[in-house]
Write a structure and sequence with these properties.
The complex is a heterodimer of chains A (116) and B (293). A four-stranded antiparallel beta sheet of chain A has the order 2-1-3-4, with helices on one face. Helix content of chain A is 26%, strand content 28%. Chain A has 116 residues and is of the alpha+beta class. Chain A has a single domain, classed as P-loop containing nucleotide triphosphate hydrolases (Rossmann fold). In chain A, strand 3 and strand 4 form a beta hairpin. Chain B has two domains: 155 residues, no CATH class; 132 residues, no CATH class. Helix content of chain B is 55%, strand content 19%. Chain B contains 13 helices and eight strands. In chain B, strands 1, 2, 3, 4, 5, 6, 7 and 8 form an eight-stranded mixed beta sheet that branches. In chain B, helix 8 crosses helix 9. The longest helix of chain B is centred in the middle third of the chain and has 35 residues. Chain B is elongated, with a radius of gyration of 29 Å. Classes of the chains: A alpha+beta (116), B alpha+beta (293).
Chain lengths: 116, 293
């Protein structure tokens, strides 16, 4: 049986004290081996959805389970971000004072610190 | 003066006039006017040569003699007046030892303050309680302030009090500006690097690690600033001491506690200045920080 990697249920996320609704009851299931493309116009909530699945942001309500970890129940998502998920940003988001090689090495150092 | 000498328990009273004259390259040089017989009562001990006996004779303080490189027998010009150095004295008070003493009437004439004295030294009869003596004089002359030792001078001298308050005010202002400066620098650093902090948080950096990074930077900035500030301060003092006017009035003190206190104050201010930006930086969520333009 193919394992469910991402399970999103009734996800809601708003900004500006609820005035802007970025996600309104989104449901999504991603299975191992799937190749998914999320498409939509600018401002439709693609980045918000990915931020929440990647543990960079928290939803207002709903459930997000990634690799059997319920992100809504995890108090601290630092370790999840360091160990479980890799995120390729739309913008490069490199650290300007570091070289390209050092930029690539940062997550590896983080892994070492967490594993020791 | 005579009236004070006639007071109960008073053995002797000596009037002292104080004046500032120009001497060589110094626009201000401290000169005391004291009667020759009153020199011991005023605490002036001749260490070389003799006391003055003529109006055109002067005795020079130990420190002043060294600084001016004068010896007994040499001539000194205070403004337009010429004096012969008859002796070198010491009082133990560095301000007086950086000056000179001439006959009281001569200084009064030079300053056009005939009959005036600025201080009166009083010798009490043996066995008299000093507090009682002070009380007696202040009771008779409410306009006068008595002190028991030269060390108490600063307590009654308003100008010293004002200078001390002014110096404290300037120090407080410096601390405030320094603190705001560090805080502003750290705030700008955090603002400029908000996306960078977002990337690090996205990679799994914990809040306390971001906090430690910002605080660490603040501490390094502080230590560097303390070092640079101390160095600039030392250079500024050396430069100020090149001025004869400043050298005539002030003498730098290199006390360890001043350096230690400055270090503690600067370090604490820097640490507090770095705390708010550090707290703000670690409170940001990664998504929030990455959205920052």
């Amino acid at each position: 049986m193919v394992r469910k990697i991402v399970d999103v249920q009734d996800l809601v996320k708003t900004y500006e004290n609820g005035r802007v609704k970025a996600l309104n009851g989104v449901n999504l299931e991603v299975y191992e081996g799937d190749f998914i493309a999320i498409m939509g116009p600018s401002g439709s909530g693609k980045t918000t959805l990915l931020n929440i699945i990647g543990g960079l942001d928290r939803p207002d309500s709903g459930k997000v389970i990634v690799d059997d970890i319920n992100l809504c129940e995890v108090k601290n998502l630092d370790e999840f971000r360091a160990k479980t998920v890799g995120f390729v940003f739309q913008l490069h988001n490199l650290i300007p004072v570091l070289t390209a090689s050092e930029n690539v090495q940062i997550p590896m150092f983080e892994q070492c610190i967490l594993s020791t | 003066m005579d009236e004070i000498e006639e007071l109960e328990h008073v053995k002797k009273a000596a009037g002292v006039a104080i004046g500032l004259v120009s001497l060589r390259d110094r626009p201000y040089f401290l000169v005391l006017g004291v009667e020759e017989e009153d020199l011991p009562l005023v605490g002036i001990n001749i260490v070389s040569g003799t006391a003055f006996s003529q109006e055109d004779e002067v005795i020079v303080g130990e420190i002043a003699a060294k600084e001016l490189d004068v010896e007994v027998g040499e001539r000194l010009s205070f403004g337009e007046e010429e004096f012969t150095v008859t002796g070198i004295f010491e009082t133990g008070n560095p301000y007086f030892d950086k000056g000179a003493v001439i006959p009281l009437r001569k200084l009064q004439n030079m300053m056009k303050l005939e009959g005036y004295v600025m201080m009166i030294y009083v010798d009490l009869e043996e066995g008299t309680d000093i507090e009682e003596g002070c009380w007696l004089i202040e009771e008779m002359y409410p306009d006068l302030v008595t002190i028991k030792s030269v060390a108490e001078f600063s307590e009654v001298d308003r100008s010293l009090e004002i200078m001390s308050s002014l110096s404290q005010g300037v120090s407080l202002l410096a601390i405030l500006i320094g603190g705001l400066g560090v805080m502003n620098t750290m705030m700008m650093s955090v603002y400029e690097r908000t996306r960078e902090i977002g990337v690090l948080r996205a990679l799994g950096w914990k809040r306390r690690r971001v906090l430690a990074m910002i605080l660490g930077e603040s501490i390094v900035l502080c230590l560097f600033s303390i070092l640079l500030g101390t160095l600039l301060g030392l250079i500024a003092i050396k430069l100020l001491m090149l001025s004869p006017i400043i050298r005539g009035f002030f003498e730098p003190m290199w006390a360890t506690d001043i350096f230690v206190n400055s270090f503690i104050v600067a370090f604490t201010v820097g640490l507090i200045g770095g705390l708010y930006p550090a707290y703000r930086a670690c409170k940001l969520s990664p998504a929030e920080a990455l959205r920052y333009e």
